Structures are given as C-alpha cells and as structure tokens.
C-alpha cells in the first residue's frame, strides 16, 4: 500500500521540475507554465471532495482500480498534448484521478488495530512522502535526458503496472454508508459543523500545505535563474534532500499511538516557520536551501501525520468522509499556495515568497494556540 501510494501521488509533482522545459516548448513565460502545478493540485482537491467519499458507499478496491485506470488515460493525454491548453486540461484530470492514496489510507486504517493505527498511517505516509519528493528527482532527470513528455509516458506505464498489483494484492472492503450520493456529500458539511477537532486539524493543514506548495513551485524558478542556472535534472535532485522527512513519518505515527499527536502538530508548525527563516537568508546559498528543505519536510510530516491520526480517531464509520474534508481542503491549500507563491515571486522574488510564507506560518500557529486556549478555558470552567 505504501508503494502504491507513493507511485500514484508522484503524478501530482512530476510537472514541477519540468516547468522551464514546458515553457520553452510552448514559447510561454515560466510563470505561465507554472499554472499547471496548481491546476494539478486543484484537480486533486476536486477529486478528493467528490470521489473519495464514495469509499464509504462503494467497495473500495473496485474504486481504487477504476480510478487508477483513469489516471493512466490522463497521463497519456498529457504526454501527447499538442498545445498548452490541452496540457492544462490534462493536468487538472491527472489531479482529479490521482486520489488513490486517499482511498488507500482509510482502507489501511480500517484494517489496522486502534493501538497500531498511527504506526500504520505513518508507514504509508512514508511511501507517500517519498513519492512526492523523489518524483521531482526522477522527473528532473528524465526531462533533461529524454524530454518532458517521456516522464508522463513512464508515469502512465507505472500506473498501468500498479493496476495488476492492486488487483492481486489488495483486500476487498465492504462499505458501511447506506444513503444516497447526495446524502453522502451533504454529510461532509455536517461533519465540518459537528467536529471541532476536524475543523482545527484541517485549518492548520491548509496553512501548512500552502507553504509547502509555495516553496516547491517557486524553488524551481529560483534555482533556474542567476546565480544558480541549474537544469531540470539538478533541480530535481533537491527532492532527495527532502526525502529525509519520510524517515520522520513512522516516528510521528508512533507518537500519535502514545497520545502525543497534538504536541507533534505544534512542533511541526514551528519547524515549518523556521525553514522559511533559513530560506530568507539563503537566496544564493545551496547549503541553506538544503537545510530549509529538511526542516520544511520534517515539519510538514509532524503536522500532517499527527493531524491525520487525530482525524482517524473519531467516527470510524465515516473515515473516508473525514479524510475527504481533511485532505481536500489541505490540497486546496497546496493549490492556493502554489498560486500565492507565483504571485509573490512576481511581486518581489524570493524574499517576498519567504516573508509571505512566514505570514502563513503565523496563521497556522494562531489556530493552534487559539484552540489550546479554548480547551484550557473549558477545563478551568469545568473545574470551577
């Protein structure tokens, strides 16, 4: 499940190191080519909201197989796109159909014992993070050697292979929701209204994922310009540095099993903020950028896995729908962050990006602190 999660989520990020190559082929500015990054993320959020809830209503393995096949088709459309508009549409479809990791995670959570759930989620999230980060390394190398279209052909072949693996290895899992699709989608808003923990975890994730999206989108623009002038293969290598965050994922999951998830969220928010302080002073220093990447990826794991473990701890019968709310808004945050990062880049280059992301860090920490304050006041009232 971790391998399948990593290989499929990688589809969302192959385009990032290829922005300059795509811009050159279609004779458009780099910033315009960068729109495919947030279209892919926006598509993912759409797929999460409208398709992932079905995992509570229909058999999950069948849904995973059908969705993976749709991903293969979308990747082929991207590989054969003859103009940028078709590539933009294909990018949106890639995002919509690459929701399989968010179908696998609730499936894995439902199969695991409660005392092991955090560890299981952390292990699968390791695969997801490795897929996210190493996708950039692979994509940068393939793009430089074989061209950007080859990366989408290779991704389509990998997803086709996964179809056979999933069919053979994944267990069947019966749904529990008996209502209509309309009732299913309507219940998402009921969950948002009635579950304060879900609201808090989701909002913190939105701000954290927005910083992640802003960084990885604009980092390509930074490293391809003066004084670095790196090609796509070299830029992709920075994904290997970020893979260090994957090592932290199982550890964070175990903290969740011990009841320390919320503490890990706070530390994660602080690490992400610290990473942008480092980035601010490293616009021309590779060592500083590398250190910042380690900090942001470990910090994001602390926030994301801990919040996801907390969300999975409530309403087991609604895990897919809880995950829908949590992840769709998180990736809307990534999409908005990518667009926000491109806007800040045009406004004031790297310094503007880092300062803008520090503002998002302050928002995440404010939500975290506000919830803690409300809980403390509630406890004091009970004691009185």
Order of helices and strands: HHHHHHHHHHHHHHHHH
Which structural class fits the helix and strand makeup? mainly alpha
Which parts are unreliable, with pLDDT below 50 for 5 consecutive residues or more?
A: 377-384
* Average predicted local confidence, pLDDT: 84
The N- to C-terminal Cα distance equals 49 Å
Oligomeric composition of the shown chains: single chain
Radius of gyration computed on alpha carbons:
20 Å
Strand content: under 5%
State the major sheet.
none
Tally of helical segments: 17
- Globally, the shape reads globular
As a percent range, the share of helical residues equals: over 70%
The count of DSSP E runs of length 2 or more, i.e. the number of strands, is 0
Summarize the structure.
With 384 residues, this protein is mainly alpha-helical. Helix content is 82%, strand content 0%. Helix 8 packs antiparallel against helix 14.
